[in-house]
Write a structure and sequence with these properties.
- Helix content is 24%, strand content 33%.
- By secondary structure, it is α+β, with helices and mostly antiparallel strands.
- It folds into two domains: 220 residues, Rossmann fold (3-Layer(aba) Sandwich), CATH 3.40.50.300; 116 residues, Nucleic acid-binding proteins (OB fold (Dihydrolipoamide Acetyltransferase, E2P)), CATH 2.40.50.140.
- The strands form four sheets. Strands 6-7-8-3-9-10 form a six-stranded mixed β-sheet, sandwiched between helices. A five-stranded antiparallel β-sheet has the order 13-12-11-14-20, with no helix packed on it. The chain has a five-stranded antiparallel β-sheet with strand order 15-19-16-17-18, with no helix packed on it.
- A hairpin with a 4-residue loop joins strand 12 and strand 13.
- The protein starts with 5 loop residues before the first strand and ends with a strand.
- The mean pLDDT is 90.
Length: 354
């Protein structure tokens, strides 16, 4: 089995009063696009900085193509970094910004010119090399930063929330372009974001982080369809969570007396408190109780019109809240605030979480 392009083993980072990274093991294969996803303060940016070599880990080891690098300074790690604020030199042209890393590596001037031109062409900035950053749009500056990171042909590319300063339309365009470039070059990439849609669209695998640890890692479909914990279920997309208890016959009895006959994960003990998780788009709303699956009776409290879809916010029996998202068709328009309804879901669309 080939050595991973990047491997983290037991990485921790402690500060005087806090633990930023609490023990991370991660292997990224050659050419893979892996995203570190999580809320502010979860340790994802600190992990990226440890990989880049901006400061050393408290414990653990970092390997690049099998070689330990935790004690190497950042400039000797053969890593390209794109920062959230781009970090361009304002007094240099776009071409000179891209050339900076090559000059530091003492690349021959003739090669520098060719490689800079190729890098600018790769990010669709050919003809704009003489402009300075302040003469460029936010999207163009982001492309310059990406070209600067790629021109050195790094072993690993690190992206630290590079799209967060762009408007929504440009952000959506740039995430497609970044993935296209990454696929074309086959470059191993670690991307940091708190934006779930970016992670789902761009990644081969997603590592969801919480409190300095990786809570779950898997491909986008695994993370969204099969969350392993309540944290992942609530952080990725939206989720209905209904309290319940595992019975002696390995069923789940919910707070309102309904029973889920689907499989309970083996690691969850009998008698344990659990949640039945249902995505809003996998739930249904109806006036009559469905013949099959789980169903909760409730009242419509709010209806939100979202263009292509409508959201129904429900107050359910037992005091729990429910959310149903439906296509915005004639059937959806029949329900109004105050209506008595059922929130239903097939057993296949329910997941039991500890």
């Amino acid at each position: 089995m080939p050595e991973p392009a990047l491997r983290l083993v037991g990485i921790e980072k402690h500060y005087t009063t806090a633990v930023a990274v609490a023990g991370i093991d991660l292997a990224v294969t050659e050419g893979e696009f892996v995203t570190l996803l999580g809320p502010s303060g979860c340790g994802k940016t600190t992990t990226l900085a440890l990989i880049a070599g901006f400061f050393p880990p408290t414990s653990g080891e970092i390997y690049l193509k099998g070689k330990p690098v935790a004690d190497l300074p950042s400039f000797r790690r053969d890593i390209g970094v794109v920062f959230q604020d781009y970090a361009l030199f304002p007094h240099l042209s776009a071409a000179d910004n891209v050339a900076f890393g090559l000059k530091m590596r003492k690349v021959a001037p003739a090669d520098i010119g060719r490689r800079v031109a190729d890098a600018l062409d790769l990010v669709k900035l050919n003809g704009l090399g003489e402009r300075r950053p302040l003469q460029m749009s936010g999207g163009q500056r982001q492309r310059v930063a990406l070209a600067r990171a790629l021109v050195i042909n790094p072993t690993v590319l690190l992206l630290d929330e590079p799209l967060s300063n762009l408007d929504l339309k440009l952000r959506e365009e740039m995430r497609v372009e970044i993935v296209a470039i990454q696929r074309r070059l086959g470059i191993t990439t670690v991307f940091v974001t708190h934006d779930q849609s970016e992670a789902l669209v761009m990644s081969d695998r997603i590592a969801v982080m919480n409190a300095g640890r990786i809570e779950q890692i898997g491909d986008p479909a695994d993370i969204y369809e099969r969350p392993a914990t309540r944290f992942v279920a609530e952080f990725i997309g939206r989720m209905n969570l209904f309290a319940g208890v595992v019975t002696s016959d390995r069923r789940v009895r919910t707070a309102v007396g309904l029973e889920l006959a689907g499989p309970v994960p083996a690691e969850i003990a009998t008698g344990a408190a659990v949640h039945v998780a249902v995505r809003p788009e996998r739930a249904r709303i109806s006036r009559d109780k469905p013949a099959e699956g789980l169903a909760w009776t409730g009242t419509v409290r709010q209806v939100l019109y979202l263009g292509a879809t409508r959201e129904f916010h429900l107050e359910l029996a037992g005091g729990e809240r429910g959310l149903v998202e439906t296509p915005n068709d004639g059937a959806a328009a029949r329900f109004e605030p105050g209506d008595a309804v059922w929130l239903a879901a097939s057993f296949d669309n329910c997941r039991v979480l500890p």
